[in-house]
Amino acid sequence: MNIQDMESMNQQLIEHVGKVIVGKERxxxxxxxxxxxxxxxxxxxxxxTGKTMLAKSVAASLDCTFQRIQFTPDxxxxxxxxxxxxxxxxxxxxxxxxxxxxxLVLADEINRATPRTQSSLLECMEERxxxxxxxxRRLERPFIVIATQNPxxxxxxxxxxxxxxxxxxMKIRMGYPSVAESVEILKRTTANLSVRDLSxxxxxxxxxxxxxxxxxxxxxxxxxxxxxxxxxxxxxxTELSLGVSPRGAQALLKAAQAWAALHGRDYVMPxxxxxxxxxxxxxxxxxxxRVRQQEGLAEQIIQQILSQTEVPTETLxxxxx
Length: 321
Known about the structure:
The protein is an alpha/beta fold. About 45% of the residues lie in helices and about 15% in strands.
């Protein structure tokens, strides 16, 4: 596999998922970018915009093990990680793995689970391992969590803590479809097209190869300084009590490399960082005034910082190519 193969993979996935999902090409590119960069994804928007459908469609297009977990207030950590049970036939305790032992995990309505259950995801999302009863079990690569949540329904929900939000490489908003896209959705509804009509078109081996190859994409030191300037600006912003962590800066770097590779380039450009700054950084900001946090102004602050930060010249960042 080479960079051109990764660009072809990107186009094929968009066309493949496009059989079920109308529009949302940019959203699908962001999702694949996060998957290639081994990052977790949080899909957030109002009900009925296709969050779960998109996650299931992407999972159906990848030849990997898949588990869907419907998060509810009565869900326990052991329901996710698994349990040891006594086997009367063998007379021994055996381990029954939970749904987290899969390559792709759909955490549907993640903010409906209690903080105790949400916290059980922290170790597996960051370290790709699960500790149960004093023993540690490694998760097979790839391991990606795609979570969904509804931003407007507060009843019966538990907001994700900052530590949990920081584990997601991207938070992506679906948005409403255009008029033309809405008409096409209705047409496909009558045609009974569904996720069941999709078959895997990217193998696990191809995905693992892509996850290793994207790291060879060149990032000029001036662009690294640019990423640091953006993150430092969030920490100095007067409206924020917490800016972007070093983990967030690393996530933006990795996402930019994966984005460049999926667009057929072996080097990162400033525009790659500009495109990814909002989905990678905005959800990591914590406002001094929590009311403003709920108004969705984080994206505006990121755009403001982008407009005020000097961009490295193309000659410097591409080595004169």
